[in-house]
Design a protein that fits this description.
This protein has 2 domains: 2-217, Alpha-Beta Complex (DHBP synthase), CATH 3.90.870; 239-317, Rossmann fold (3-Layer(aba) Sandwich), CATH 3.40.50.11030. The chain is of the alpha/beta class. It has helices spanning 9-20, 42-52, 70-73, 79-88, 105-108, 122-133, 155-162, 204-211, 273-289, 305-317; strands at 2-5, 25-27, 34-38, 61-63, 93-98, 113-117, 139-140, 171-174, 185-188, 195-198, 216-217, 239-242, 251-253, 265-268, 294-297. Strand 2 (25-27) and strand 3 form a beta hairpin. It contains 10 helices and 15 strands. The strands form 2 sheets. Strands 1-8-2-3-7-4-6-5-9-10-11 form an 11-stranded mixed β-sheet, with helices on both faces. It binds threonylcarbamoyladenylate and magnesium ion. The site of threonylcarbamoyladenylate has 28 residues, from strand 5 and strand 6. The site of magnesium ion has 3 residues, from loops.
Length: 320
């Protein structure tokens, strides 16, 4: 794989061309790094599943350049979903909608709906625009990690996860650290009202205020196949324990106001909830790198992004 740092427009064009030719391109988004392929190329999509080691009935999110491309991929978009799209795209939100013929089974895991997102990261945006200029419809991109592992928020993390699985002709675009650090909010828009399937930076409250909508959070137990809804997911190799007292040699992930017991290894000490989210996965990876026996996470209280951190923490701590 070739890593391109701070890609120029010419290099992004080259990456779009590589996608069109069926290669994989990992790229930064505002949430986490994605592993991209042409969403209409079955052979390339099959490689995503192989590289990630992910079961092929787990659907992929299709990334598109702008809201105006939504109709290509979907049918019967409810008004509330149109409102969500215009309020929060480009941004960290994925909408699950009834699919058009363009969304093949190899993308949707044989479901009748498709996940769509318009990312706001400038490199992701430019890549999508260039891809569109050469006839592409959308870029399928799961998080650029092995199945069940922690999502990468830096290029080093992408490399740690996938360097043994990507091949020479695949590309990785380096755009530095991801701003948000947690995956997009996933909203199921296939019913009469929206439900949150995965919490993220677009919070329940934001949706309720902006769209004047009641929204239900349904993180568990639905017939929609969302791999992030597996009990154990987003896990480092190190054992994760929640809200317990860290002992000598344990790693600790907690808000700055929480002191470090003596002999513990502080992995993260954020002053704000945004900072917590941004560096959370990096802290879990650091725990792995240091070969710790245990990582203790003290769950942050409150609504909004804190809910998403608690959700990922609970999944990281579930036994595999
Ligand atoms: O922030 C994000 O969403 C990142 C960046 C790269 O965009 N992507 C990401 O993709 O997190 P992934 O595949 O790692 O997680 C997406 C989740 C998976 O659990 C998948 O099963 C679910 O979304 N998903 C995708 N399409 C779906 C669909 N049609 N119905 C239900 N769940 C879907
Ligand atoms: Mg993922």
């Amino acid at each position: 794989m070739e890593i391109i740092s701070n890609p120029t427009q010419v290099e992004i064009k080259k990456a779009a061309q590589a996608l069109k030719e069926g290669h994989l391109v990992a790229f930064p988004t505002e949430t986490v790094y994605g592993l991209g392929a042409d969403a209409n190329n079955e052979v390339a999509i099959r490689r995503i599943y192989e590289v990630k080691g992910r079961p092929n009935n787990h659907p992929l999110i299709v990334h598109i350049a702008s809201v105006s491309d939504l109709d290509k991929w979907t049918v019967k978009v409810p008004d509330y979903a149109k409102n969500l799209a215009s309020a929060f795209w480009p941004g960290p939100m994925t909408l699950i909608l009834a699919r058009s013929k363009l969304a093949n089974n190899f993308i949707t895991g044989w479901q009748d709906n498709v996940g769509i997102r318009v990312p706001s990261h400038p490199i992701a945006q430019e890549l999508l625009m260039e891809f569109q200029k050469i006839g592409g419809n959308g870029i399928a991109a799961p998080s650029a990690n092995r199945f069940g592992a922690v999502s990468p928020t830096t290029v080093d993390a992408v490399q740690d996860e996938l360097e043994h699985f990507l091949i020479k002709s695949d590309l990785v675009l380096n755009g530095g650290s991801c701003d948000i650090g947690l995956e997009s909010t996933i909203i199921n828009c296939t019913g009469d009202s929206p439900t949150i399937l995965r919490s993220g930076a677009i919070t329940k409250k934001m949706i309720e205020i902006f769209c004047d909508l009641e929204i239900e959070v349904q993180n568990k137990g639905t017939n929609i196949k969302t791999s992030g809804m597996l009990r154990s997911h987003y896990s480092p190799k190190t054992k994760v324990v929640l809200d317990s007292i860290a002992s000598v040699g344990d790693g600790l992930v907690a808000l700055a106001e929480i002191p470090t017991p003596s002999g513990c290894i502080r992995l993260l000490s954020p002053k704000t909830i945004e900072e917590f989210a941004r560096h959370f996965y990096g802290a879990l990876r650091l725990g792995d790198k240091k070969n710790l026996k245990k990582i203790v996470i003290i769950l942050p209280p409150g609504e909004g992004l804190a809910e998403a951190i608690r959700d990922r923490s609970i999944k990281a701590s579930a036994r595999k």
